[in-house]
Amino acid sequence: MDFALLVIQTLNGLQLGLLLFLVASGLTLVFGILDFVNLAHASLYLIGAFICATLTFALGNFLIAVVVALPLTGLIGWAVERFVARPLYERDHLDHVLATFGLILVFETLAHLIWGPEGIAVPLPEFLQGQIVLSETLIIPSYRFLIIGAGLAAAGGLFWMVNFTRLGMLIRAGASNRTMVSALGINIEMLFGLVFAIGATLAGLAGMLVAPITEANIGMGNSIIITAFVVIIVGGIGSMKGAFVAALLIGLIDTLGRSFLDDIFKIFMSPSAAENSAPAISAMLIYIIMAVVLALKPQGLFPPKVR
Amino acid sequence: MSRRNIITLVVMALLAVLPPVFYLTGNAFYLDLATRLTILAIAAVSLNLILGYGGLISFGHAAYLGIGAYAVGIPAHHWLYGGLESLGLATTSGYVQIPLAIGVAALFALVTGAICLRTKGVYFIMITMAFAQMMYYAIVSIEEYGGDDGLVIDSRSELPFIDLDDPLQLFGLAYVSLVVAMLIVRMIVNSRFGMVLRGAKGNNERVVMLGFNTYLFRLTAYVIAGAMAGYAGALLGNFTTFISPEMMDWGRSGELMFMVILGGTATLVGPVIGATLFIVLEEVLSSLTVYWHLPFGLLLLAVVLFGKGGIMGMLRADKEDSE
């Protein structure tokens, strides 16, 4: 286990954790306030990445593309709320799950239809392609720092909005008692649409940030949504703080587990047994952690107080 | 005879007669289709036990299909390439593979169910999904069994009296299994056990107050459903002779749920009708366009937004007929 690799993997874990938070925060926001289960949340992550990819080529600059793509993704989120989620608020969770499962199929096939089956590589502007050399063995692409910075900024912005603005106050009030909020003369439908759009924008931002690394591709939504579920289950569904802590925890454990679990196993196992079991165990690691957390605290680490 | 029983009998009779007729008149393809839908119907019937009658929205039922299929594939793999002889798991004998499929599926259901059932509502949905995905990633990471690429089953399970290489006999086994699965579910649902299960779906607190440990009742039902789906998975492995982690993907679990809902939850024959419609739709739509998931997804949205109670709900004239 060498030090440089540990630093690099910790940064990778942090990066994954922040991306997970961007996706999970929208999920937990929508569930906490609207009591709506949105499986199609990751479709907005996917669509965000594709829109950003197209705009990068059309506008010639990745950063400008992100700025334009964010409100577009929010708009799609708003449309999903208006036409799919809103008629289903009074129904049970099973209907939410089925409808949004259908929505995933629709979004993924549309993406396939519009952008084709191949992934789209997203070029970065010149100044983001560099690398930061910390020591001879410790070289980190500067774009990674942009992701971490953007992730932290988005998380900070979200905390500020929820805790210190009038909108945030309404959102928190809506989460504890939506009938009361609406009785106080707040347009609850508009508030819900806005919350959905914010969640969609955050998921879209995560997709846009990850696109230059992995390409925008059809399967990307599927690969993150389950992990995002694990995050909000571990953190406590509806809790923003829980989502943040759990996202970093899951991101770090998943990344570090994949790179170092075989080394750890070799301490108390034969090398061949460690080589064989480590990949399977590290693939299952976050689920095992989820199981342990649930066995101890069925409501997650930070269960929301009012539900 | 109630209207629902008549529908059940008609559907099951059609399913028994039509596929062999197609086969004998030279349309072997339709028999294949029927075999696949029959096997998936077994899984859907088992899911209906917990989802329809128990109210437990499990979004990870495809994992059991995968476990059952790998319980056939892995011993067959070792039988051909060596390894695991000491455990007696290098074999193509159905006497080993099928109990293995049922046993491992039941065990997985017991362990994950014990955790999942401590939670409720949306937690339960997501956790069942996460555990299924855990199996998916576990199989993907094991390179010996093909990982992502899947595993070819070179030799089907050997059973007495039945030759699974004969498509007609394989269909026969699947059909009889489906009927038995339906009878088991009917027996369970109408028993005292089933009354508690259904009662807990309606009002868990009340049933708990009556002195029943609903957690144990639900866990038992969860294990039974898992074991049945594991058996269906063993049949599915024998049918496709190629298995891959893809069959445990959460999309597959969603499809199984869709079958149950489309046909009508908490009805005996609903899942069979749902599975039939699903397979037919998939076949028709995918022959028209590679983008068949688009109309399929829209249909799913439409069913949820505008339809209630599934096909059995629409066919049902008298409301009293429902449980």
What does this structure look like?
The complex is a heterodimer of chains A (307) and B (323). Chain A is built from 11 helices and 2 strands; from the N terminus they run ααααββααααααα. Chain A has helices spanning 3-34, 41-59, 62-85, 93-115, 142-164, 166-176, 178-183, 188-214, 220-235, 240-268, 271-296, and strands at 131-133, 139-141. Chain A has a two-stranded antiparallel sheet with strand order 1-2. In chain A, a hairpin with a 5-residue loop joins β1 (131-133) and β2. Chain B has one domain (3-317): ABC transporter involved in vitamin B12 uptake, BtuC, CATH 1.10.3470. Chain B has helices at residues 3-24, 28-53, 62-81, 94-116, 122-141, 167-190, 192-202, 204-209, 214-240, 250-263, 270-288, 293-306, 310-315, and strands at 151-152, 242-243. Chain B has a two-stranded antiparallel ribbon. In chain B, α2 runs antiparallel to α9 (214-240), α3 (62-81) crosses α9 and α6 packs across α7. The longest helix of chain B has 27 residues, at 214-240. Chain B starts with a helix and ends in an 8-residue tail after the last helix. The chains are: A mainly alpha (307), B mainly alpha (323). Chain A binds chain B through residues 31, 37, 84, 87-88, 93-95, 97-99, 101-106, 108-110, 112-113, 222, 226, 229-230, 232-233, 237, 279-280, 282-284, 287-288, 290-291, 294-295, 298-300, and chain B through 57, 59, 112, 115, 118-119, 121-123, 125-127, 129-131, 133-134, 137-138, 140-143, 249-251, 254, 257-258, 261, 291, 293-294, 296-301, 303-305.
Please specify the SSE layout and strand pairing.
The complex is a heterodimer of chains A (307) and B (323).
Chain A: H1 3-34, H2 41-59, H3 62-85, H4 93-115, E1 131-133, E2 139-141, H5 142-164, H6 166-176, H7 178-183, H8 188-214, H9 220-235, H10 240-268, H11 271-296
Antiparallel strand pairs in A: 1-2
Chain B: H1 3-24, H2 28-53, H3 62-81, H4 94-116, H5 122-141, E1 151-152, H6 167-190, H7 192-202, H8 204-209, H9 214-240, E2 242-243, H10 250-263, H11 270-288, H12 293-306, H13 310-315
Antiparallel strand pairs in B: 1-2
Helix pairs in contact in B: 1-2, 1-6, 2-6, 2-9, 2-10, 2-11, 3-4, 3-5, 3-9, 4-9, 6-7, 6-9, 7-9, 10-11
Membrane topology (chain B): Multi-pass membrane protein
Subcellular location (chain B): Cell membrane
Keywords (chain B): Cell membrane, Membrane, Transmembrane, Transmembrane helix
